[in-house]
Design goal:
single chain, about 260 residues, Rossmann fold, 9 helices, about 15% strand
Length: about 260
């Protein structure tokens, strides 16, 4: 029997890419899933795919950086408990790249949007979910990270800074609340919408980005969303607690 069966997980960024692949993998294992993304149509398509494997699927369309959206996601997860599955944690897979411009070229609205999706979205989910998880005495909080958190890459400066902030936010909550297993998962180089945006970006950092991102595609080095999501689902189905407070790369789970 799967360890995630009869447990419910929130997945942000669940309409496309790795988030969708992860939600589907969890549903295939018998878990309940609460799916979140901005686009209601693509989110519902992802939910329908999950419903072919799990009878416990809920949708909360909206901006993940809003406290009200986070509260609605947690409420949906708790509502599922009436029919069996227990709320067990979340995966913050939503993110925004805003590739191309150098930092001094980037519009303030774009800078704010990157931090909202990556950092504030993580924070409001912690704020909404942790009290409920603490009542159960355990849970899992997974923050999707990137190697960009530890480098300076012209053309995605806001993203690099935001991922560094999100990574340290994880370390902070891991230290504060050891009962809830928290870690950053770096899914690797994956063929997602962000990859397409980086390969076709414009701005002062675009040429540099193209030299980095385009060869990955041309040389067939990109993972599929499923290849990135499945090792994480496998880990949750086993025991993620040894990785509390860590930054975990997909390579470590695929070896």
């Amino acid at each position: 029997m799967s360890r995630v069966q009869m447990k419910t997980f929130i997945v942000t960024g669940a309409s496309l890419g790795i988030g969708r692949a992860l939600a589907l993998s969890l549903a295939c294992r018998g878990a309940g899933v609460v799916l979140n993304a901005r686009n209601a149509d693509t989110l519902e398509e992802a939910a329908e795919a999950c419903r072919t494997h799990s009878s416990h699927v809920a949708v909360v369309a909206g901006d993940c950086s809003l406290e009200s959206t986070a509260q609605h996601m947690v409420a949906a997860a708790l509502d599922m408990e009436a029919s069996g599955p227990v709320f067990a944690g979340f995966f913050h897979a939503a993110g925004l790249l805003a590739p191309g411009p150098l930092v001094h070229e980037l519009e303030p609205q774009a800078f704010d949007a990157v931090f909202a999706a990556n950092v504030r979205g993580a924070y409001v989910l912690v704020r909404a979910a942790y009290p409920a998880l603490l009542k159960r005495g355990s849970g899992v909080a997974v923050f999707f990270g990137s190697g960009a958190a530890s480098i300076a890459q012209p053309g995605i400066g806001a993203y690099c800074a935001a991922k560094a902030a999100e990574e340290h936010l994880m370390r902070q909550v891991a230290a504060e609340v050891p009962e809830i297993t928290a870690f950053v998962y770096q899914p690797g180089i994956v063929e997602t919408r962000m990859q397409v945006q980086a390969r076709t970006s414009e701005g002062g950092g675009a040429d540099t980005l193209h030299k980095v991102f385009r060869p990955w595609k041309e040389q067939g080095q990109l993972l599929t969303p499923e290849e990135a999501a499945e090792p994480l689902a496998d880990l949750i189905d086993r025991d993620p607690t040894p990785h509390h407070g860590q930054v975990l790369r997909v390579d470590a789970l695929r070896d």
